[in-house]
Design brief:
about 180 residues; mainly alpha
Length: about 180
């Protein structure tokens, strides 16, 4: 006979749901080392692992969409966070909110530009235009600073007209961006 979902999870006389709960929460029942995260408050734990940012963001998305399948949205959202593509088309405050977001943005930009712009020259404005395709309010000041680090004595003193290898310019932005606001 065909077994039901509950029967498949029945083990040692325990109902399927109870066993599924046991399997799901098994990790949280392990004995923690003395110096573990158990000594910090819930709020501190959430902040330490940047979870508040993502939980607030996904709840906001759920409330905007009000879909009939909220768990699917949660699943997709956190899959994007884990993959690192959750930063595409997000504002700079979100992209810059924590180290994971910054590193994810850098990886997205590297993948998008490595082959297409291998030997392309461009100005700081051109580099900024590339960045705003992925982060609409990416600050020009960061690109300006990166361009300044690339300038040599022979380069044009006017940054707007100075030409750079676009990948070199983006690499300089990545270097600055990766360390920006890491003191949070």
């Amino acid at each position: 006979t065909q077994s039901t979902w509950g029967q498949r999870f029945k083990l040692n006389g325990v109902s399927g749901m109870a066993e599924a709960d046991n399997v799901f929460f098994r990790g949280s029942r392990r004995k923690q080392p003395e110096d573990s995260s158990n000594s910090v408050s819930s709020a501190e734990y959430l902040e330490r692992h940047n979870l508040s940012l993502y939980l607030n963001d996904v709840v906001s998305i759920l409330l905007q969409q009000r879909t009939e399948q909220p768990l699917q949205i949660l699943n997709e959202y956190f899959a994007h966070v884990v993959k690192g593509n959750h930063v595409i088309q997000r504002d700079f405050a979100f992209v810059n909110a924590n180290e994971w977001n910054r590193k994810s943005f850098i990886q997205v930009m590297k993948k998008a530009t490595e082959q297409s712009f291998q030997d392309q020259d461009g100005t700081a404005d051109d580099g900024h235009q590339l960045l705003v395709m992925f982060c609409p309010d990416f600050p020009f000041a960061l690109v300006h600073e990166a361009a300044r680090t690339l300038r040599t004595s022979e380069a044009s003193t006017q940054e707007q007209t100075a030409k750079y290898k676009l990948l070199d310019l983006l690499a300089a932005v990545y270097k600055l961006f990766d360390v920006a606001d890491t003191k949070r």
